[in-house]
Q: What sequence folds into this?
């Protein structure tokens, strides 16, 4: 339901345009698309279809601190069926949301009600860990999400920042110095350090056309930790991809206990 717009042309994410097509268009035009959440009318129509078919709804989307999606869903819930629609603030993005939905599907198949599923997801939300290594700050800079000083600093020192989701927002985590491969290895080592503390049912490697990096990370994880039940590789959607740029790659998973924030540093 998310939209990417170049001037007067609008495209539904994953429906009218792929991530590769979006990058090619952005590079050809020399500008980034504007992204927007679904309108209240669109979400009303989407929910009503399933309500009319007799379903109760559990909905989660991009974090309330990153998008208006959560607020819109809450408005539609009150308008349509407050007792049949359950809206969960994911506090996350991309396959951080996917992890919640996989858990929700499992609970549904176990016979949980929509309310019970929503309650279970609320307990999982603070345990979802999302971290992405960014190859270039070009897209963040052009999109106004990175200062000129930080942009220049990263260019000179060849810094590859790791973006983490904390307190429902994207923040800069560890800064790796050197190649993107070195940064990917550093992020993967952090994941492996967490390994005994994670829920091993679902893990995502999510990227923006970084196929070689995904293969590299998958091999690192598989060689050391073969006991992950489901290790998925996915390509990010256009909305996320338009903010982070090409060759961004992340590892997303669920911790057994609530995440404790750590002090970040520069990794030499």
A:
């Amino acid at each position: 339901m998310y939209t990417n717009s170049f001037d007067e042309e609008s495209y539904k994410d994953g429906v009218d345009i792929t991530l590769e097509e979006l990058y090619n268009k952005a590079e050809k035009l020399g500008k980034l698309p504007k992204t927007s959440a679904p309108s209240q009318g669109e979400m009303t129509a989407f929910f009503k279809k399933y309500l009319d078919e007799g379903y109760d709804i559990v909905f989660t989307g991009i974090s309330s601190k990153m998008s208006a999606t959560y607020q819109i869903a809450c408005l539609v819930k009150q308008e349509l069926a407050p007792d049949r629609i359950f809206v969960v603030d994911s506090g996350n993005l991309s396959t951080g949301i996917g992890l919640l939905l996989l858990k929700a599907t499992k609970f549904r198949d176990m016979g949980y009600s929509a309310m019970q599923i929503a309650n279970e997801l609320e307990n999982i939300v603070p345990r979802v860990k999302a971290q992405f290594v960014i190859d270039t700050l070009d897209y963040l800079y052009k999109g106004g999400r990175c200062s000129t000083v930080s942009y220049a600093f990263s260019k000179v020192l060849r810094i590859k920042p790791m973006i983490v989701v904390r307190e429902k927002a994207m923040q800069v985590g560890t800064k790796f110095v050197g190649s993107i491969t070195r940064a990917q290895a550093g992020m993967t080592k952090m994941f492996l350090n967490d390994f005994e503390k994670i829920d091993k049912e679902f893990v995502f490697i999510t990227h923006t056309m970084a196929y070689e990096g995904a293969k590299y990370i998958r091999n690192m994880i598989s060689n050391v930790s073969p006991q992950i039940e489901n290790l998925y590789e996915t390509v990010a959607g256009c909305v996320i991809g338009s903010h982070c740029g090409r060759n961004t790659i992340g590892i997303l998973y669920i911790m057994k206990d609530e995440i404790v924030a750590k002090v970040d540093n520069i990794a030499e």
Observations:
- The chain has a mean pLDDT of 91.
- The two ends are 41 Å apart (CA to CA).
- Residues 84 and 207 are 35 Å apart (CA to CA).
- The longest helix spans residues 95-109.
